[in-house]
Amino acid sequence: MIYTKGKVAYNFTLFKEMPEFNALYQLLNVKTKTLYSEKFSIHVIDLSRIDLATEEDLHYGIDRWAKLFKTKTWEDLRMITKNNETMQKAADSLYQLNSDAVARQCAQSRADAAYWETIKNNKLRYLEEANSQLTQTIDQQASRIDQQASQIDQQTWQINQQASRIAELEAALAKQNK
Length: 178
Known about the structure:
Layout: E1 22-26, E2 41-45, H1 55-59, H2 62-70, H3 74-81, H4 85-99, H5 101-176
Antiparallel strand pairs: 1-2
């Protein structure tokens, strides 16, 4: 089975000090230097280094495929794919995918929806955090207000007690002065 849904990295040279057009990587046991499997390998094509294509790359047309993916105009694409039916089919598929307005609009709508969903989720997360912080601040202030209200009640009671005592003393003084 061929894995065809791999992610692609553009404009990325893996090892700048040792550039290659077509590089093959395989898994290897570091201690024993034993190859994991010849059936599992990764081919990396550096589209910016077509100039380093080997005779084997040229023989298998890998350089032409790289040029196909680097083209910027449909005319260049047609020139590269002429005389190669497989490449022409690939170019036709690319053209159909890019020229189908409905498909392009659907793809753009999906991208826009994902973008706005991310914006909405980020804003919601921010508002939830802000709400949590404000709720915490309000709770702290409410607790302080309750403490201060209790102190006011206690001081009011003390003032009333003192006013009552003053009234008693004034009454006693007035009684003595008569």
